[in-house]
Amino acid sequence: MHPLLLGIHMEKERFLRLSFVALSLGVRVKRAEENQLGQPLGALCGLQEPLPAAPQAQVGEEMLVLAFFDDALIDRFLQAMRASGLAPVRLKAVLTPVNSAWHCGQLYAALSGEAAALERGRRP
User: Into how many domains does the chain fold?
Assistant: First the structure.
């Protein structure tokens, strides 16, 4: 599959700036709308059909999902993001067979928990 950058809970202007970075690397882009947050990530990334009645999902912070990226493209994308001067996106994930079944709220819970644990580990 062709690489896809999925933006979740992102302001349109910010996602547009990220889109320019991604498109310059040949990456497709998609911004999840609020009414799609209950859909499985796999559906949002084109791996399966959307659920006819998806649950509601709450996301408290912007996230990026890098779908179908190889390791080299991940590195190039992150370097290009830094070079563009965009503020970093704290919560990022690579689409996997496990998380492709999760909705955006489940991904948010997992990523925010991991980020909090990492931040606690950095404090003296």
Answer: 1
Tell me how many degrees the CA angle 106-114-112 measures, rounded to the nearest 5.
50
| Tens digit of each residue's pLDDT (9 = 90 or more) over 47-99 | 999 999 888 888 999 999 999 999 999 999 999 999 999 999 999 999 999 99
pTM reported for the whole predicted model: 0.92
At 74, which helix (H) or strand (E)? helix 71-84
SS3 48: coil
Q: Map residue 92 onto helix, strand or coil.
A: strand
Q: What is the DSSP letter of 61?
A: S
Say how many Å lie between the first and final Cα of the chain, rounded.
Answer: 43
Residues in contact with 71: Cβ distance below 8 Å, sequence separation at least 6, in sequence order? none
Nearest alpha-carbon partner for 59 in 36, 43, 26: 36
Whose tokens are 């202007």? That residue is: 13
Q: Which domain holds residue 85?
A: 4-122
Rounded alpha-carbon distances, angstroms, from residue 21 to 27, 88, 118: 9, 13, 27
Q: Count Cβ atoms below 10 Å from residue 81 Cβ, excluding itself.
A: 19
